[in-house]
Design goal:
Number of strands of chain A: 11
Distance between the termini of chain B: 57 Å
Order of helices and strands of chain A: HHHEEHEHHHEHHHHHEHEEHEEHHEEH
Structural class of chain A: alpha+beta
Largest sheet of chain B: 8 strands, mixed
Helix content of chain B: 25-40%
Strand order of the largest sheet of chain A: 6-8-9-11-10
Radius of gyration of chain B: 17 Å
Shape of chain A: rod-shaped
Number of helices of chain A: 17
Largest interface: A-B, 28 and 29 residues
Order of helices and strands of chain B: HHEEHEEHEHEEEHEHE
Low-confidence stretches of chain B: 1-17
Mean pLDDT of chain B: 80
Strand order of the largest sheet of chain B: 3-4-2-5-6-7-8-10
Distance between the termini of chain A: 115 Å
Oligomer: heterodimer
Chain lengths: ~625, ~170
């Protein structure tokens, strides 16, 4: 209990601390304990106050009673000493005062006569020694007594000599009464023990009352605590078991009763809400199941579709492989065919020349010579013989001329055959060197690409304009880059095929900026509508009648593989298009292979096949 | 100068103070004794009857007694002075001071006839007058002391206060 007793206020902070500590301790207690503590505190404080007041008033009353007792004692003693004073008998007075021996609280007593002189004292010691004694209380009693002769007859002789003095002279009568003083000095020593005795009684009563108060409050706290405990138990039960069917019994119409009502109605609402929620939940579960089934079905469909797509993809791959083979073969054969045309022309010219040759005239002349026995006569005498040297001379010059023409043609033929050989060799070279990087001049590569695609351009009457700037060498995979360029050129050619432009033109630009090289192929062909700009690199997107939407897609992939990028710009339909390939000057190894079927796979197959074709 | 003249007679009287003072004290004691003695109701005619102090024989005390009876009361009663010359006068007194110079015959007569009368007989220490007194003034150590005869007091139906008895030397 002392733990909770209010501490004396020593300092503001201390009070605060004690209060905080008290609150901290209270926080952890149950409401029953709190109620008990409060009640006990209240009872303790009020009882303490009452008993303190009681003890104080008791002490005051005791002191007052003691003082009154002293007054009574003083008056009794004073009256008893009157005769001694009147008859001037100090020993009798001292005898009277000696009765004070029965009063232990009396320190000392002094009786003064009417002249203020010590008449008698108790105890019988020197009065000066008594004055040294410090007493707690002093009580004085005035003893009125008939004065001695000197008082009675303030001047007895005069009075006798004037017996007829004024009878109304009051001085005589007033002088006859003297006033002595009895002073009692007492201590209150007994008072302390008396008060202590009372205090101990009071403390017994205090603890008794406290115990009774606590017991009574404990007995009655159930009236307050029990309904609260009901509420707590119910809340705990609901929290633990999620069972909202429980209700709290209302015990009284007080605030806790209202709380119980509110609690019950709240629980009812929660129960209803819970049921509703359960219904919704079951519905939701049903819907989720439905949706899951639908999704599963969709998923299956999707899977099936994906499988189909895979098949289609493989079909497409094989188609594009064949298309690639055809394209490569077309390119090669086209170039070869062009050259063969020249070869054919040269051969025909040679055939004609040889057919019309004057070799036969030479044959006839040699036969004539062989038949003549006398060659000298023939040459000098015969009419025909005389023309013979001139004829031979003419024949020699004519045959010489023929040989010159035929040599020229043969040279041309040899050159054309060399060209064919070159075409074949180039194709074989590209087929062999896959995945290997090499330093190369982009300008030369563009020329190569143009050479391969040249047949198409020249036949269509397309102007090629070159805007090349000096750029550094680039180290990259030659055949991939070449393939992109061929694709772009082919694309430009197709764009120009469908165009009605008078001057069909392709502008090839080469430049560098910010660590990259830029190659752009710009045509003034059919252009790309804005809505298709984002699709041109998609797999399967094409505007060509026989296209398969693979060329630009694979080019973009390849550009990525090379660490670069392919971009397109067009001002719209009929406005032409510009494809720009950006390549890093420094080689960047791109390890991440696209998840889609990559161009390399397609190309390798294609070129191998093409290679085989070429070799056979 | 006047002040000095006023003081001279006082100083001169101091030489003969023992005689003068004794008489005064005795007179004062007589007055005080009255307070400590209770007379029977029959001793007074009514409530207002004066308390009579009588003196018999020639004495220095007598004038002082006469002086103090003037304008003085004890309780409700006034005091009266009576000079006694005859035995019958004594009956009218409540207190009788017997001087040493009292006539022997008269004294014998008084003690004979008035031995039970409710009169407080007060006397001085004397060779001749030894009996019959209730209170006797005795001079000891230059002080006037009292001797009390409780026997006489009871014979005379007088009640003596214990206060007085405490002060006095009780002889019987």
């Amino acid at each position: 209990m002392s733990k909770y007793a209010p501490k004396p206020i020593v300092h503001g902070d201390l009070t605060k601390k004690v209060r905080q500590m008290f609150m901290q301790v209270l926080k952890r207690q149950s409401i029953v304990t709190k109620l008990c503590i409060h009640t006990t505190l209240a009872v303790t404080v009020s009882l303490l106050f009452c008993f303190a007041a009681f003890v104080v008033s008791d002490a005051v009353a005791l002191r007052a009673a003691r003082t009154e007792q002293l007054y009574a004692l003083a008056s009794v003693l004073g009256e008893n000493t009157r005769s001694a004073l009147e008859f001037d008998d100090p020993s009798a007075a001292a005898l009277t005062l000696s009765s004070l021996a029965q009063q232990p609280t009396i320190d000392f007593a002094i009786l003064y006569d009417c002249r203020g002189q010590v008449f008698a004292n108790y105890p019988a010691v020197v009065p000066a020694a008594m004055e040294a004694i410090k007493s707690d209380v002093a009580v004085e009693y005035s003893v009125y007594y008939a004065a001695n002769a000197s008082g009675l007859f303030f001047d007895g002789v005069d009075a006798l000599s004037q017996p007829s003095a004024d009878p109304s002279n009051s001085s005589l009568s007033t002088e006859t009464v003297g006033s002595g003083r009895l002073v009692l000095h007492a201590n209150m020593s007994g008072l302390g023990s008396q008060v202590a005795q009372r205090a101990s009684l009071v403390s017994v009563v205090f603890f008794g009352s406290l115990a009774i108060g606590v017991v009574v409050s404990w007995f009655f706290q159930s009236a307050i605590a029990a309904p609260i405990k009901d509420l707590v138990d119910a809340s705990q039960y609901i929290a633990d078991n999620q069972d909202y069917s429980i209700r709290v019994t209302k015990r009284a119409d007080d605030e806790i009763g209202i709380l119980a009502d509110a609690f019950n109605s709240m629980v009812i609402r929660i129960q209803a809400a819970g049921k509703e929620l359960q219904t919704i939940n079951s519905q939701l579960e049903h819907r989720v199941k439905q949706r899951t089934a639908q999704l599963a079905k969709s998923n299956d469909d999707l899977q099936r579709e994906m499988a189909e797509r895979e098949i289609l993809q493989s079909e497409l791959v094989s188609a594009s492989r064949q298309a690639g083979m055809a394209e490569v073969a077309t390119g090669v054969l086209h170039n070869v065919g062009n050259v063969l045309n020249s070869v054919n022309v040269s051969a025909n010219i040679l055939v004609d020349k040889l057919r019309q040759s004057r070799v036969t005239s030479l044959k006839k002349a040699s036969d004539v010579i062989c038949q003549e026995s006398d060659l000298a006569t023939f040459l000098t005498k015969d009419a025909r013989g005389k023309h013979f040297p001139a004829l031979l001379n003419e024949l020699a010059s004519t045959l010489s001329d023929e040989r010159d023409v035929e040599l020229q043609e043969l040279n041309s033929l040899v050159a054309n055959i060399e060209h064919i050989k070159e075409i074949v060799t180039m194709q074989q070279t590209f087929a062999r060197c896959r995945g290997a990087t090499e330093p190369l001049q982009l300008g030369k590569l563009i020329e190569n690409a143009l050479n391969i695609a040249n047949a198409g351009f020249s036949s269509q009457g397309i102007e090629i304009e070159r805007r090349f700037k000096d750029v550094p060498e680039i180290t990259t995979e030659k055949h991939k880059l070449l393939q992109i360029l061929i694709n772009l050129l082919s694309n430009a050619k197709h764009a120009l095929d469908g165009s009605n432009q008078d001057t069909k033109r392709v502008i090839l630009s080469l430049g560098s900026a910010e660590g990259s090289l830029f190659v752009s192929v710009r045509d003034n062909g059919i252009g790309i509508p804005a809505e298709n700009l984002t699709k041109v690199f998609s797999h399967g997107f094409t505007t060509k009648q026989h296209g398969h939407g693979f060329g630009l897609h694979s080019s973009a992939l390849t550009a990525n593989e090379l660490g670069g990028a392919l971009s397109v710009h067009s001002d719209g339909q009929g406005q032409g298009a510009t494809f720009t390939l950006r390549l890093p000057i420094r080689q960047i190894h791109v390890n991440a292979r696209p998840t889609e079927l990559s161009w390399r796979d397609v190309y390798s197959v294609t070129t191998d096949s093409a290679g085989c074709e070429v070799h056979t | 100068m006047l002040v000095i003249l006023l003081f001279v007679p006082r100083f001169a009287r101091g030489q003969e103070v023992s005689i003068d003072r004794e008489a005064k004290i005795k007179a004062a004691y007589i007055l005080k004794l009255v307070s400590y003695v209770e007379w029977p109701a029959a001793a007074f005619a009514d409530d207002k009857s004066p308390l009579v102090l009588g003196v018999i024989g020639e004495s220095d005390v007598a004038p002082y007694v006469e002086l103090i009876t003037r304008q003085r009361t004890v309780g409700n009663r006034s005091l009266a002075f009576k000079r006694v010359t005859d035995a019958e006068d004594v009956r009218a007194c409540h207190l009788l001071f017997i001087s040493e110079q009292v006539d022997q015959d008269l004294w014998e007569k008084l003690t004979g006839t008035l031995s039970t009368a409710p009169v407080l007989f007060v006397g001085e220490e004397s060779k001749y007058i030894t009996r019959g007194k209730v209170i006797t003034f005795v001079v000891q150590d230059n002080r006037v002391r009292l001797q009390l005869s409780m026997l006489s007091a009871s014979q005379r139906n007088l009640k003596i206060s214990s206060q007085l008895a405490k002060l006095a030397e009780v002889i019987d």
